Amino acid sequence: MSTTIEKILHELESRGRVPFTPLYIVSEEILKDNIDAMNRAFFSRFDRFILGYSYKTNYAKDVLRMVHQEGGYAEVVSPMELAHARTFVDDSKIIYNGVIRDVVGKVELAAHGGIVNVENLTELRDLDAHADLMGLDIQVGIRVNLRLSGAEFSRFGIEVNTNTLEELSSLKHIEITGIHCHITKSRALSLWREKAEKMARIAKQLGAKYIDFGGNMYGPMNPALAAQFNGYIPSFQDYADCLYDELSQLFSDEDMPTVIVEPGTPIISNAQSYLTTVTDIKTVAGKTVCTLDGKSLDVTMIGDSGKQFPFYVISSGEGHVEDAAMYGCTCLEPDKFADGYSGPLSVGDYVLFDNIGSYSNTLAPRFIQGVPAMARFSRNGKLRFTKLMDSSSTVFGEYL
């Protein structure tokens, strides 16, 4: 158990009860430690490094404020996210990726000094035409499609070949100054090494000023979750060393392109927990069934199905269960949080699930019950509520 989780448990126990559950709890301390660790690792290898936080991973304002206070850029993938990022940082601190077509927005951002990585040639042509219409010359990057050994097929990005290079050179108002690549389920260090080697060659060929390696990295995690992964889990320093080893084969320290990574999961996953309350305990066909007031859809983990989130019981009763399953509050049979729990548990107890910061609150559906409230666990050890739970008006009021 981490020191911060112990502090959260202590705070909850000392309160007696919090106003309501289910509740997301963001730890300032863990988040800052993760950001600092990543910056430390990459700046130890690269003079020019940018941490671009993946907005889609977790939109919590407290999370975004801390990322930007620590020098992180905003990495966005849609006009909606772009508008949100602009409430926190200037255009020059925004990285705009994504498949969603936004010709006007991307040209404008690039003209204001932001980083734009274009995913397909169709939009690249349209950006060039719009820049011509606006009388602008802009710099953008392209997302490249790479095939990595053992990695899944990726539909994203542009294949770099002779025809592509000819088209890039024919652009009248766009200069290609960077390359970007993000491949799902490619966290292994061997895949990052292969990606770095291939991207370095393309960057050299194009004369790129920056190489954006995207995200999909491991990060610090609860030991109980780490034990469920097969094989070695790289540190931030491992990733930084790996990239430097490959890039330094083609670039000296003086002409090294700016290195960009776009972490979401690695820095937010273990910085957020999910608090629920036990509402019922019963026996069905000899099986102990416990019902919680949240739903498992609130803590979905992307890309790693089958993993069990670490959890802690905050018990105030005298009850005890054996081999119990913990289910959510919805009418869906598969709405299950955990199974095989033996230990203290009574109606009214809390269950705190750890390591659920990645994609949980951004993907949590308003199915039967709205998206939970959120609180910030500050570095002085206090809970401060920062988001209300959805009400019937927020869920249904948007319908005409």
**Uncertain regions: pLDDT < 50 for 5+ in a row?**
none
Distance between the termini: 48 Å
SSE order, one letter for each helix or strand:
HEHEHEHEHEHEHEHEHHEHEEEEEEHEEH
Classify the secondary structure makeup into a structural class. Answer: alpha/beta
**How many runs of DSSP E, i.e. beta strands?**
17
Mean pLDDT: 93
Biggest beta sheet attributes: 9 strands, mixed
Number of helices: 13
How much of the residues is beta strand, in percent?
Answer: 15-25%
Quick structural gist:
This protein has 13 helices and 17 strands. It has helices spanning 3-15, 28-43, 61-69, 79-85, 103-111, 121-134, 162-170, 189-206, 223-226, 236-247, 265-268, 360-363, 392-396, and strands at residues 23-27, 49-54, 73-76, 94-96, 115-118, 138-143, 174-180, 210-212, 258-261, 272-284, 287-292, 311-314, 320-327, 336-344, 350-353, 373-377, 383-387. The strands form 2 sheets. Strands 1, 10, 11, 12, 13, 14, 15, 16 and 17 form a 9-stranded mixed β-sheet that branches. The protein has an 8-stranded parallel beta barrel with strand order 2-3-4-5-6-7-8-9, surrounded by 6 helices.
